[in-house]
Request: fold
Amino acid sequence: MGNSGGAVLFLYCALSLWVHSCMSGNPVCRLAKYSVPGMFQNGDIMIGGIFPVHRTDEFKDLPFTKEPAPLVCDKRFDLRSYKWIQAMMFAVDEINDSHELLPNVKLGYAVYDTCDSIAKALEGTFALVTGEDNYIPNYRCHLNSSLAAVIGESSSTISIAMARILGIYQYPQISYFSSIPILSDKQQFPSFLRTIPSDTFQSKAFAYLVKYFGWKWVGTLAEDIEYGTQGVQLFKEEVKKLGICIAFAEKIPVVYSRQKYVRIVETIKKSTAKAIVVFSGETNMIPLVEEIERQNVTGITWLASEAWSTTTYIANKEQYKYFEGALGFGIMKGNIPGFDKFIFKLQPLNAPHDIYLKEFWENVFGCTWSNQGTKPRCTGEESLLESNNTFLDMSELRITCNVYNAVYAIAHALHKLQSCQVGKGPFAKGACAKANDFEPWQLLHYVKKVQFIDKTGNEQYFDENGDIVPKYDILNWQTAADGSVVLKTVGRYDGSELGQELKIDEQAIIWNGKKKEPPVSVCSQSCPPGTRQSIQPGQPVCCFNCITCPDGEISNGTDFTNCIKCPADYWSNSKKDECVAREIEFLSFGELLGVVLTVFAVLGACLTFSVIGIFIKNMNTPIVRANNLELSFLLLFSLVLCFLCALTFIGEPTVELCILRRTGFAVSFALCISCILVKTIVVLLAFKMTVPNQNVMKHFRIVHQHMTVATATLIQIVICLAFMLSSPPSVWKNREAVIAKIILECHEGSELTLFCILGYIGFLAIIDFALAFLARNLPDNFNEAKFITFSLLVFVVVWISFIPGYISTKGKYLVAVEIFAILSSSFGLLACIFFPKCYIIMLRPELNTKNNLMGRPKKL
Ligand code: TRP
Reply:
């Protein structure tokens, strides 16, 4: 409008006047209903202020059956809001007195009360934008002063509504208390700025705080308007990333509803969550606080958002019991030097422009200016200095400071705008804005770029979204000696210090119940080492059971979600909190089983030696000579080997030992059985062939016999060699067989090895058995074939029963089974073949004659 020149201006106002007259007189137009009373101080440039000085019940049931009553503000007077207005006035006065800042400009202000309602706030906004209390939208007629910017409002909901209108005209709007994140969106709110940080950071800070104190299960309460819902939603998102769960999320109604408050408080009482985050303004919080008091809910750690963390309506002696130890975020405290004096000078009798002062006076001193009522009359002589109203506490300036800084931001921007040098200006072709007749968008340009040091010493500037650096004090509700509530700063959140945003002095915090330790707020107690969490399907991740880690797995800390598998050679201890080296197991000489088997093996060998001894001693007796003597000794020798080879199965397996075991066993048994085989053949030939062909015996002479034994054994040696060379055995750490142990086992290079070796021995044994069976009834007094048949039967039975035993046992018992089979089969052979002979030699020497052996049958 400013560029269009005088003529246009004139036309504009003429038009406006016409519209005006139209409204009052012309029947086509009607005067709009409401005129908005404001509070003014004239100046060259005006700053608008929108504050919730009173309250109102905006949400009335309106049936529209009769003309609805206009919105009336009620009598509830907000002292805090009045303090903000005073801060604005003080700043304007200060700037007007300043010689450095805007030296030649007189700032004025216009303040409107919103009564905490959107409708009233919009009326005030229109009045500011048009410059008329009886405003006509889109006209501005008092051209002697221009509106620079608007400060306000407090509640985000109202600021949003205002920002939509101010955005149309590009008037800079600076809010001192509206923190909702959406206001950072410059597409929607192009001319909105604020001297309070966005709740994006507060929500984050709450999440960090909750994490810091180890609360895993928290409740949330949100006032059911933009501020609460968005704040809690962001908090939930942040918290989710940190693995913290929400126990309940309740909405605090904005329209009074006893029922809903009762329900909320019951939810709080029922829940195990002891930390509750509350995003709410004090107005909506108060009825809930009353319900909390009524139901006597204590033991909760309240986490207060900035909107109610400093409110004296709740942080007072009466309610402290319920809110003891509350933690809250507070806007950074600041200084306004000289503000206390300014306030104490307030005098209702000589401040006609201050339309709220008398009301303020009534509220502070509990008096009345009217003649009615029982209250004492106000005189104006009362002393603010002597009143101990919290309003006058100048040590806690937080939001007040935001208002003060907002005025200064505008002043600094104006100053910059006015000190613009033509040609070097920021606008097209280096143009400058007109000093006292600038366009709102031109000032907006400067406000967005403003940068100054405030009275507290902090640098103030807006980021690209019009927000300031996010810094909060962390406040703890404590009591002073006199029982009054003090808000102790116990920490700080600084969003600009990435990585270490949160700083907390834990020692300084007094928790609820006067405790020194933070309370616990979890759904499930944490899982101790040795267990892991098991989350039930459909339940939040913070609610779990603890289950013991399975064998071989451990958890060495609390709250493991998975147990860790122990490395291969390790196993879990009994507590499942440590991996310990697995015990290595093998059949050793040191243990009972090992000793017993060794004793039997040695006993067997000794017995065999004794038999050899007896045979040598009685070498010339018929019974010894009856059969091939060398063969008998060879058999006895192989039996010694069989007994001794059992010993190789005891002790820690190594590759060499494994080879020795297999080949030792294979060769000694092959040798043994082939000796028996040849013996059987000899018996068979000696008897069966004598009559028809005397020569047969000669053909199968001793050399042949020895060669047969050698060949049979050699074949076994070749089998062994083939296997040992092609797939040598190895030592295998068997971790599966026995829990928590490693069993050292000889692992055949090929599955076939044992099969072939045993198979070959079995093959020899079966042939032998068959032959012996044929020879069993030969007419011999001492028929060896009978004993051989029997011994082989024992042998075969032992090894056949070995197979299922071998398959079903594990670990070192497998080796024991094998040794057992070796020993018992060897004992079987020794006993069946040689003991009867020894019996005759030792105890029945009378039978040991050639006659007796060859002669008539005689019973043994
Ligand atoms: N920071 C809050 C907001 O952005 C302040 C607030 C919440 C508030 N609820 C309120 C202020 C109610 C006044 C009234 O909205």
